[in-house]
Amino acid sequence: MTKKYWFTLFIVCMAMSFSFQLNAQDKVMNILLSEGSKVVPLKTLSKITFSESDMVLNLSGGSTENVPIKNVSRFTFATSSGINNLNVFPKVGLYFDSETNQIMLENMPEKGACIEIYSITGNRVKTIQANQSTQVIDVSSLYKGIYILKLNNQVLKFTK
């Protein structure tokens, strides 16, 4: 093989390596808290677990950071753009009515969106196809506890 071939192969490999490193650095977890927000680069995060009252961020270095679930409004995963607090869609409102065992979602970004509800253990317990901008969901079949609702790229939590 010629030197030119090996040099070209080396440059291509280096470019691919740089591209993968750049992509890993750009991905973040955005946590919207009741007061402010927190951005966690995914390259520093090894695992996310939940205790009874906290979202536990297990960091790559072996340390953990506890975020009280009661303070978390939602969390999303995105590619960092350098633009902070950009809201493309209006904030989806989630309201739980304990008397009727229903949750109501307002300001849905699109009709036909898939709504998934997960238990705190990560099991999907309900899937609904949205048919209007305000959606009412019966959750009477769910046990009392904390649930995560996923709507497109938005994540909301509610307690039953």
Written overview of the protein:
With 160 residues, this protein is of the alpha+beta class. The chain is 15% helix and 47% strand. The longest helix is centred in the first third of the chain and has 24 residues, at 3-26. The radius of gyration is 20 Å and the shape is globular. Mean pLDDT is 76; it is low at 5-25 and 82-88.
What can be said about this structure in brief?
By secondary structure, this protein is α+β, with helices and mostly antiparallel strands. The chain is 15% helix and 47% strand. The model is unreliable at 5-25 and 82-88 (pLDDT under 50).
How would the blueprint of this fold be written?
Elements: H1 3-26, E1 27-33, E2 37-41, E3 45-50, E4 54-59, E5 64-68, E6 72-79, E7 93-97, E8 102-106, E9 114-119, E10 124-129, E11 135-138, E12 146-151, E13 154-159
Antiparallel strand pairs: 1-2, 1-6, 3-4, 4-5, 7-8, 8-11, 9-10, 9-12, 12-13
